[in-house]
Prior knowledge:
mainly beta, 5-stranded antiparallel β-sheet, 34 strands, single chain, disordered N terminus, binds 2-acetamido-2-deoxy-beta-D-glucopyranose, Neuraminidase
Amino acid sequence: MYVFLLLKSLVDALPLMLLAEMMHSAVVRAAPGVVNNAVDWGFSGAMLSVPRSSIAATSVGHLALFAGGKLQNGTSTDIVDIFDRKTNKWTTARLSEARSEISAGSVAGRYALFAGGFDNSFKPMTLVDVYDAKSGQWSQIRLGTARAAPRMLDLGNRTAIVGGLSGDLQYLSNAVDYVDAKLGVISVVLESRYPQLGVAVSDHVGGIGLYTSGYENIQPGHRFNDFEAANRTTVFTAQGTAVGFNGGAQFPFPRWGASGAAANGVFVVGGGHVFSNGDEELTTTTDRVDVYHTATGKWSNTALKMSVARDYPLAQAVGNYVVFVSGTQLSKDFDILDTRTSRFVDTSEHRPALHTLRSDAAAATVDGCLLVIAGGSVYGGRNKTASVEMFDACSGL
Ligand SMILES: *[C@@H]1O[C@H](CO)[C@@H](O)[C@H](O)[C@H]1NC(C)=O
Ligand SMILES: *[C@@H]1O[C@H](CO)[C@@H](O)[C@H](O)[C@H]1NC(C)=O
Ligand SMILES: *[C@@H]1O[C@H](CO)[C@@H](O)[C@H](O)[C@H]1NC(C)=O
Ligand SMILES: *[C@@H]1O[C@H](CO)[C@@H](O)[C@H](O)[C@H]1NC(C)=O
């Protein structure tokens, strides 16, 4: 049992391993088009400099950055592809070390952060590569403790880098590093009973973020880990230079593999999987979407549904919308939730869709309106792709 449980958590860290068998080439669907009267989604394509998956992606300034990832031969790369929305040009750079399971985010609207990861011998790292969008310079800072796949909450002038895989017996980390606008780092520990590897959703304008869902180790410190779907929600808030966290409303439907994004003070967490009825080997993927309102501090009573069940979907805020796409299921279609109404946009006539069906892709949204989806695994997980698809909602917002 414990061997399987360990594997289960590795799979959460490295979803690609599971995906290989799950994708097939799909029927060609409608090209991206008009969602409704309010939004036009222009489309353009591009290519990364190197095909790869498991890329760490973020946006800062007018840039989208796609860092590292796994190459076709399975090794990690240090390559960074950078798209500048102002010049419409792509350039490349390099991380200071090639690695996998990097977490990406930003702080102070200026710095892109590429935090932690596994080195080539699978050791968690403290390294954070920092790109300054103002000067174009790279530098490095360090996490307080080494970990891979930490989660990042951009709270405006502070960013919280939360949890991750620690590589010791406890395995899931309770560490939090706050990075400030001068790249100072303060390391603290989440005062929670069980270490958790959750979903991070943040609103850098409101200075608020949620760490919720995912799974927790209910036997920390024991020889063998025991992982369970988590319902604990931690709310991070930043005001001026102060930053802290509090317990929040419990996640209504604990599960693994969900993703989330925030717009308009509305936090949206969708997809994921549960293990059926105590049978650890049967998983059910869900189409469920849960909505949290910062105004009330509560989750909605009624869950919403996507058009398909998705595991490890991409979730991105685009203007007032939260877009879910991809995941391990066979769908190129977008599900688009309007955070003003907490309803999915009716896309029965024209549904934006990916041209290339892919899993384990990366996404970043530039200037809040240009959704860039890059790389991932294609052809039944056998091949990595360099393909980039860009959906431009900027003119309609
Ligand atoms: C994987 O491919 C990269 C790029 O082609 C190459 O530099 C690297 O040596 C390869 N690694 C292995 C283990 O084959
Ligand atoms: C939340 O999780 C805790 C710990 O696993 C459990 O005791 C509690 O019943 C859960 N609450 C809900 C509402 O699921
Ligand atoms: C962030 O820092 C800038 C520069 O110091 C300041 O003008 C701004 O008010 C700060 N924002 C918040 C939300 O504290
Ligand atoms: C997949 O990758 C292999 C190895 O690089 C290549 O030979 C093959 O043509 C690729 N398949 C497709 C369908 O692109």
